[in-house]
Amino acid sequence: MKRPSKKLVLENGMEFYGVGFGADNRKVCEVVFNTSVVGYQEIISDPSYAEQIVVMTYPLIGNYGITDEDFESRTPSIGGIVVRECCDTPSNFRFTKTLEEELDEHGIPCLSGVDTRMLTKVIRSLGRPMGAIVEAEMPKEKALKLIASTPRATDLVSRVSCRKRWLSRTPNHTYHVVAVDCGIKASVIKTLNGRGCNVTIVPYCSPAEVILAFNPDGILFSNGPGSAADAPEVSKLFKALKGKKPICGIGLGCEIIADACGAKLEKEGCGIHGDHPVRDLSCGRINIAVLNQSFNIAGIEETKLSATHVTVPEGNVVGFENEKDKIFAVQFQLESAPGPKDNVGLIDKFIKMMEDNRNA
């Protein structure tokens, strides 16, 4: 099969040539890199990467194919991926299709054969640049005009959130959680189900009265794309629910809670996307967490929140709590799908909050 020649053009004019893989189309959006060794299926189907071109630093992608049970969302919203090498002959008894088939089905372009080490260094220096995957023969000037005419998306939560509420039940449930869908991962819901929780997933713009009418044991503000500034409806919702039920925040949900509680969100340059060490301040243990972070939480000491987790070695706050208002949130992925599973036990902290509130 003859594959088309493609290139990635960054907003600073740098060009990275390679071979097209997946959908044969153009894409212009923000470019980030991810350092995860496994989990490319979870990454391409994670709504947190909506409208982003993700550069995979691990050199071989696609070698275990795509598995129906491992999707994080029904319809991938990632902008595209760039890899060193794509494998179109996967070896895995669970796989149902190849990575290329999945990308082509959903119109996601991929660029392979790229020096991803060099590209990662460039992204680190530029922050999160805009870029375009285009035909190799397109003049650079035309590609730069295409990039300049494409604004960064600011309505991503509304794009990936569910339109109507839906339920995920488990037999003989103990607790009922309402999850505010800012781009929730399926594995978060599965993890809660596995711990005896029925989960009602509601749109990001749901009124507080509707959520409280479910009489949940706890409320979860999910992960998602973009920034807290782009989701004022969710911030308003949190303020209306604060102190009324135990609340857990993950990823974007954590950032929205921090911002609503008076902390400052500062841009993190290129951000941290992938596996990264995190210290649990309650015991000093260092675990590997899966981060998708573009903002630092600063000024937390000026709020009523207490830091629970920080990155190593940077010392950036990535987790906090407020026992009085029954709040617990982390910027990393609690369920850590597909791994490592170092922090999955923190879900039990949310479970304990609901149990204590019920028995109070």
Task: Give a description of the structure.
The chain has 360 residues and is an alpha/beta fold. Helix content is 23%, strand content 32%. The strands form three sheets. A ten-stranded mixed sheet has the order 10-12-11-13-14-19-18-17-15-16, with helices on both faces. It has a seven-stranded mixed β-barrel with strand order 1-2-8-6-4-3-9. The longest helix has 13 residues, at 347-359. The protein is globular.
Question: Could you outline the blueprint of secondary structure elements for this entry?
Answer:
Layout: E1 5-10, E2 15-22, E3 27-34, H1 40-44, E4 52-56, E5 60-61, E6 80-82, E7 85-86, H2 99-105, E8 109-112, H3 116-126, E9 130-135, H4 140-148, H5 156-160, E10 166-168, E11 175-181, H6 186-194, E12 197-203, H7 208-213, E13 218-221, H8 232-241, E14 247-250, H9 252-260, E15 264-280, E16 286-298, E17 306-311, E18 317-322, E19 327-330, H10 347-359
Parallel strand pairs: 3-4, 4-6, 5-7, 6-8, 11-12, 11-13, 13-14, 14-19
Antiparallel strand pairs: 1-2, 1-9, 2-8, 3-9, 10-12, 15-16, 15-17, 17-18, 18-19
Helix pairs in contact: 8-9
